[in-house]
Structure formats: structure tokens, C-alpha cells
Amino acid sequence: MIVQGRRAFLVFALLFLAASGGRATAQEASKATRSDQGPEGADIVTREAVCRWAAKPPVLDGKLDDACWKNAVPITRFASFWDKTPRSGTRAYLVWDDEAIYYAAEMTDAELRSNGQRRNDTLWDGDVFEMFFKPSAEGPEYYEFQANPKALVFECAFPRRGAYPADIHDVPVLGNTAAVHLDGTLDQPGDRDERWTVEGKIPWTAFRATGGKPKPGAEWRFALCRYDHGRKGTQPVLMSSAPLTRPSFHRHEDYGKLRFEGPR
Ligand SMILES: [Ca+2]
Ligand SMILES: [Ca+2]
Questions:
Q1: How far, in Å, is the centroid of ligand 2 from the Cα of 149?
Q2: Any idea which ligand is nearest the CA of 192?
Q3: If you measure from the C-alpha of residue 170 to the centroid of ligand 1, how many angstroms do you get, rounded to a whole number?
Q4: Residue 216, preceding bond cis, omega within 30 degrees?
Q5: What's the whole-model pTM score?
Q6: pLDDT value at residue 190
Q7: 112 and 191 in contact (C-beta within 8 Å)?
Q8: Which of the chain's termini has less CB crowding within 10 Å, N or C?
Q9: How far apart are the first and last CA of the chain?
Q10: What tens digit of pLDDT does each residue of 48-72 get?
Q11: How many A from CA of 113 to the centre of ligand 2?
Q12: What is the greatest pairwise CA distance in the chain?
């Protein structure tokens, strides 16, 4: 049986090599696997994450000293996965309770820049923290939320991808609220900044179109993303927690899974 098994395996392996064009392809496959991983063999992106229950909601002041953040599982693996580049310096958190999902992120940033004057302006022309949530894997609806270093927010419920509203400023208020703390000088080029921290809240009413608050154990698709703009005239660094195969944050078929845990 063992000999037969080994022979069958060899035949299979030879067939595989023949079908895949031989040695070069096998080497490429091996290389691709290695480059998906960080220094300790860890994945460079976040394919699965947990949203823990908050016994007490955070105080939205941009300081992450609340008990719920200490209890949360940090999301730290971000990358521009489309070109297999890990991007360090982001530590994000998601927790929930009966009223809302709460988010926080601490982001290293050497040049703090902002864009926009009001809700739903093009915040991504400056530094921005973005969140994408897709409650149902099957349904087309998904949501985008953002906050920038001025605590300006963006929020939009998309009935499907490509259905961008004619006037983004006219879309219903969903209740995304953010507070920030800056360790550096905003929109003052020439000096060196350190980081910014955002802390915010999205009430479950924002997700009305897909049934609102999830049940404990529910699994949503999600991506946390950043634009980090450097000095004027340079291209921003784009990164995501999700294994996006193309540089589009709206590529929800590539999103990671977020499991809602609790209440306990
Ligand atoms: Ca706080
Ligand atoms: Ca920046």
C-alpha cells in the first residue's frame, strides 16, 4: 500500500510539473508563497479578525487608553498586497456593543497632511483611515467610512460596486463620528511628524439597508485601509489590511473576514 501510494504520488507530481510547465513554474509558486509572508513567516495581510464586545464604550477623545481597546485584538498586518509589499506602522482595533461598532487606529506618519473642509469631501487627497464593511458575502451592498487627521468623516452606503452617488455630499448622514490625536504638526511641511491616532463610532443604524446590528458569531467581509501622503509632489502610500489583488479598496471579493464575538 505504501509503495503504491508513493508511486501514485510520483505520477501525480510528474503530471503536475508537466501541466504547469515544469521546474520554473514550481519555483515561481514557491517564491510567491514566500513573498506573501513577513519576516517570521507570518502573513503580510489580515485575512481574519475578531470584533470583540465592548462592556463599556470608549470615550471618543483620540486617546486609546479605554478598557475596550486593551481587550481588543489588534489588527496590525497591512500591505499593498497587489505588489506584495508589507506596510508597517498601523495598529487598528474594532469592537462593538448594542449601539455601534467602534474603531481606533494608531498610525505612524512622518508627514501629517489633510484634505477637505466638510463631511464627504475627498479626504483621500490627504492622510486618511478608511473602513469597508460588507455584511453579506452574497449581497452586493457594502459600506465605506473614513476619518482624517482633522476628524472629518466620509460615509456612504453603496447598493453595489460602481453605484457612486451623483452628489456624494447629499447622501444620508450615517452617524460616523471621529476624534483624533496628532503627534506632529498638521499641514506644516518641512518638519518631521510622528503619528496620528483616530477613534470613532458608527451606529448600527448606518447599516439599516443590510439588517443593522449583526448577531454574535456573524461574519462580515471587511478591509481597513490607509492613504499616507508624504511630501508634496510625492505619491501617497496606499495600504490595506485585506489581500487586495488589485489597487482598488472597493475590491470586496478580496476582503478579509471579521467575526463578531460576544456579548459574554
Ligand atoms: Ca478614548
Ligand atoms: Ca502622511
A1: 9
A2: 2
A3: 30
A4: no
A5: 0.86
A6: 87
A7: no
A8: N
A9: 51
A10: 999 999 999 999 999 999 999 999 9
A11: 5
A12: 73
The ligand minimizing its distance to the Cα of 149 is: 2
Taking CA atoms, 245 is separated from 83, 100, 153, in Å, by: 8, 30, 27
* Contacting residues for 37 by C-beta, under 8 A, at least 6 apart: 43, 44
Q: Which domains does the chain show, CATH number per domain?
A: 1-35 (no CATH), 41-260 (2.60.40.1190)
All three cell numbers of 116, joined, read 477637505
> Number of helices (H) and strands (E), helices first, in the chain?
3, 13
Grid cell for residue 96? 462593538
The bound ligand whose nearest atom lies closest to the alpha carbon of 108 is 2
Q: Whats the size of the chain, residue-wise?
A: 264
Q: Give the Cα separation of 114 and 94 in Å (integer).
A: 23
Quote the CA–CA distance of 63 and 71 in Å, as a whole number: 15
- 130 CA from centroid of ligand 2 (Å): 14
Which residues, chain by chain, have CB under 5 Å from ion ligand 2? Answer: 109, 111, 127, 228-229
- For residue 101, list its beta bridge partners: 96, 202
Rounded CA gap, 63 and 57, in Å? Answer: 13
For residue 102, the ligand closest to its alpha carbon is 1
